[in-house]
Amino acid sequence: MADMRLTKIPVTEQDPKVRARNFEEVCLGYTADEAVAEAKRCLNCKNKPCVSGCPVSVRIPEFIEKVSMGEFEEAYRIITSTNSLPAISGRVCPQERQCESKCVRGIKGEPVAIGRLERFCADYVMKNGGVSAEKPDNNGHKVAIVGSGPAGLTCAGDLAKLGYDVTIYEAFHTAGGVLMYGIPEFRLPKAIVQSEIENLKAMGVKVMTNMVIGKVMSVDELLDEGYEAIFIGSGAGLPRFMGIEGEGLVGVYSANEYLTRINLMKAYLEDYDTPVKKSNKVAVVGGGNVAMDAARSAMRLGADKVYIVYRRSLDELPARKEEVHHAMEEGIEFLILNNPEKILGDDEGNVRAVECVKMELGEPDASGRRSPVEIKGSEYELEVDTVIMAIGTSPNPLIKRTTTGLETNNRGCLVVNEAMKTTKDGVYAGGDAVTGAATVILAMGAGKTAAKSIDEYIKSNN
Amino acid sequence: MYKIMRKKMLNEQVVLMEVYAPHIAKKALAGQFIIFRVDEKGERIPLTIADYDREKGTVTIIFQTIGLSTGRLAKLDEGDSILDFVGPLGVPTHFDENVKKVAVVGGGVGCAIAYPQAKALFNMGCEVDVIAGFRNKDIVILEDEMKKVSTNLYVTTDDGSYGTKGFVTNVLKDLIDKGNNYDAVVAIGPVPMMKFVCEVTKPYGIKTIVSLNPIMVDGTGMCGGCRVTVGGVTKYACVDGPDFDGHEVDFDELMRRNNTYKNHEKNHICRLTGGVRNG
User: Fold this and answer.
1) Which pLDDT does position B274 carry in this prediction?
2) CA dist B57 to A76, A366, B76, B80, B101, Å?
3) Residue A284: pLDDT above 90?
4) Which residues contact B119 (CB under 8 A, 6 or more apart)?
């Protein structure tokens, strides 16, 4: 009989006042006892609605049942049979919109804490020396993956499990893509990402860093080198700016740059060379996870005031609920229904303020969200020394420019069919390169679909 | 790891390094750049490719030890290795086939990049006047090399200790006024120099190409740190440049943005070396 308590077993978190000034992980995760107790809340429903909410089809009730019996390694094996990166997805998935949103326990009370349980299993196994990676027999077929973010890693993991000889080409000096340069240490420790990548390497996946495909080699050259199929997961590209006055002032960052300096280049550590501005008052423009990450990072670097400037209302914030909650706890101020009109500079070209206008909600727009409308005459100056633009990205142009036969849509995103096949034979794609800025788990789902398609494609050719 | 095959000091502050990077050497073209990271704690710093040898698999970089990272790179010797070396990045310089007569203007260490441009144009059969400016005689670099790939070489020094006294802009204006009909001018050097060269050429309507060096992190079209305003539009030097039409570039904004971390770096170097600058 399931434990019928209505709420999730609470999870230990660092105190908001303390964590707002350090980069250590916010959520400390369940203990074994807490995990077992939470797992017992699962009804083990026959029709498994939770699984239908998971982009990588984790066999949720099955692994939770093992957790409830204390068989954590077995639970981990069930998770990793469909998900190569559980320590990551357990931390960064928007579970409230996916698996947990479908949980029957959520109808009356809180859903089962599926994300926390997934994370617990991955961390438990990692802490206890890991489970021996099963290195499948090499089937003699070579596949190249461009980009080592969540899409590429998932595709690589799934193909390696099937026996493919997989090589990942990564443009940066470290593998992991957005998991390394974008998502901060306090939300996703980098050692965890590297450990997941080591698991893939143990399965035989090769990682070549410092290889910018589209520059040092083209996609066509990879095909010439004997790769039978290629997966492009080159990720989000150039940051968008609003196109307002003052974006060229000193102290205006894209969230990509700000977060890359902090996460990939470790600018927050004294002994690393890369600098980042030490700000007093920061305005972060946007309401997604990236905006929350940038705002919380600015707070940790010592800012006195950090504002999220968002033109819609709290209900429309696209960020994960937990991130918004954490940001509020840490003292980030939410200036909702506010829109920047221009950025104002001092005589030396440094940011001194943002001119904002207040908004109100009007009729629903094409996205179904009520569209914000300016309140005339409500302009005011918000005094800040740093502005971080977190309003999305457009896909990286390098591969498109150097590959013949690869179609993109009017937003520059690679065009694929439902099997993640591009308009070029043997070339598949997924993640932000296809969708524009989206979530880690959607990229993982795309990588997974592509791996299945690549397997079918190569088998049909042989 | 990328091994340094050859190191040569061109003057007290300017270093030439030939680095073994066969993948990059195979693809490199004039005008493109690499990004290096000396070691695990280093910054990612862009440097324009000065030369390459496809057979030996080497890429040549020439840099001035002006900051923390170039200082740390300069400390490495032949046989040592650089942790990361990635490229070739950026769009190669493109010259119109109708270009027959060109002035290539280099300032200081910028001559290291002006030189391969002059060489490419000279080998295309262009008439190439090279104007190379330095602060003084002691820091003149690549004079013989530039002589070989130019129709005329004009060296200037700010203090008159060598060549013509004055700035490259004076020589350029003189040459234009004397009736040299340049189809294009290429200017590579400190931002103020490029700005003033553009101010000289603009009234004459001579197309002027500049190679920009904004602050960069990834260099692959991701971070947006290298954005520059060109013709009122935001461009990214890493994927749209580094070459741009100089008459369209907002140089003042570029100069301001390039100074973003000036104070930070001063303090950082002081902390690392106990106040003694040894870069």
Assistant:
1) 39
2) 46, 54, 20, 17, 32
3) yes
4) B30, B149
A-chain CB neighbours of B43 within 8 Å are 265, 273-275
Strand partners of residue A372: A361
Distance, CA of B162 to CA of B158 (rounded, Å): 9
**Is residue B19 a contact partner of residue B61, using CB atoms and an 8 Å limit?**
yes
Strand partners, A389: A254, A285
Q: How far apart are CA A73 and CA A82, in angstroms?
A: 15
Matching residue, tokens 């592509």: A450
Closest by CA position to A244, among listed A344, A97, A116, A352: A344
Task: Compute φ and ψ for B223, nearest 5 degrees.
Answer: -85, -30
The confidence score (pLDDT) of residue B271 equals: 46
Q: Under an 8 A CB cutoff, do B87 and A239 touch?
A: no
Measuring CA to CA, which residue among A345, A342, A336 is closest to residue A307? A336
Structure letter (DSSP) for residue A269: S
Partners of B154 in beta bridges:
B131
Pairing of strands B58-64, B45-53: antiparallel
Which of B202, B217, B216 lies closest to B249 in space, CA to CA?
B202
DSSP secondary structure letter of residue A266: -
Give the pLDDT band (50/70/90) at residue A47: very high
The rounded distance, in Å, linking the Cα atoms of A306 and A334 is 9
Q: Which residues have C-beta within 8 Å of that of residue B245, sequence separation ≥ 6? A: B207, B208, B209, B210, B230, B231
Closest Cα in chain A to B261: A275
Which residues of chain B make contact with A256, given a CB cutoff of 8 A? Answer: 222-224
Cis bond upstream, residue B88 (ω within 30) = yes
Cβ–Cβ under 8 Å, residues B35 and B51: no
**A380 by DSSP, 3-state: which?**
strand
User: Does residue B278 carry a pLDDT above 50?
Assistant: no
* Per-residue tokens: A140: 């003699």
Query: Using the beta-carbon criterion (under 8 Å), do A211 and B23 form an inter-chain contact?
Result: yes
Residue in A with minimal Cα distance to B37 = A173
The answer, yes or no, to whether ipTM is higher than 0.85 is yes
**What's the CA gap between A104 and A14, in Å, rounded?**
30
The β-bridge partners of A229 are: A143
Angle in degrees, CA A212, A213, A218, rounded to 5: 140
Size of the A and B interface in Cβ pairs below 8 Å? 117
pLDDT at A232 over 90: yes
Cα–Cα distances in angstroms (integers) from residue B125 to residues B31, B113, B116, B119, B153, in the given order: 18, 19, 14, 10, 16
Residue from the list B69, B224, B261 with its beta carbon closest to the beta carbon of A256 = B224
pLDDT tens digits for range A127-147: 998 776 677 889 999 999 999
CB contact under 8 A, B239 and A265: no
Distance CA B266, CA B263 (A): 5
Given its phi and psi angles, is residue A412 left (phi above 0), alpha (psi -120 to 50 degrees) or beta? left
Task: Report yes or no: B20 and B11 within 8 Å, Cβ to Cβ.
Answer: no
Peptide bond into A49 cis (omega under 30): no
Location of structure tokens 């968008």: A240
pLDDT at B275: 37
Note the pLDDT tens digit of each residue in B8-53: 999 988 999 999 999 999 999 989 999 999 999 999 999 999 999 9
Give the three-class secondary structure for A322: helix
Q: In which residue are the tokens 């009370």 written?
A: A109
Q: Rg for chain A (alpha carbons), in Å? A: 23
In this structure, the strands spanning A206-208 and A165-169 are: parallel
Type and span of the H or E element at A87: helix A86-92
Which H or E element spans position A284?
Answer: strand A281-285
Which residues of chain B neighbour A395 with C-beta distances below 8 Å? Answer: none
